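Amino acid chain:
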Amino acid sequence: MTDILKALSVDVHCDQCGDFNLGADTIAESQRLLAEGCPGSPHECPPALFATLLPQAALQSLQRAWSALESATQSPIRQLSLEGSPRLALHSIDNLEARAIARWEDDGGCVPSETGGNP
């Protein structure tokens, strides 16, 4: 059986850590850890943050739906997979944040050439 949550990626903006991606399976694991009383690590984004990114009920519903779909497949279907899934932008990125622009300006705005030569 496929763990559908491993196929779901979440793009996150954190004011302290910057932008990063994590899998929905990590969010579900953080929710499990918190439910069992684990406070997480003080050196990383704590499970308390990850656990709040997606509703636990929605993740569980997605897992049940995927499991039901896998169980209902019949011959000649050999495999189900998610490929080229649509990416949903939930917040506008029209206004770039100053920190992102500064990172771009720090490298002179030059895109490294594929051959390794000077641009």
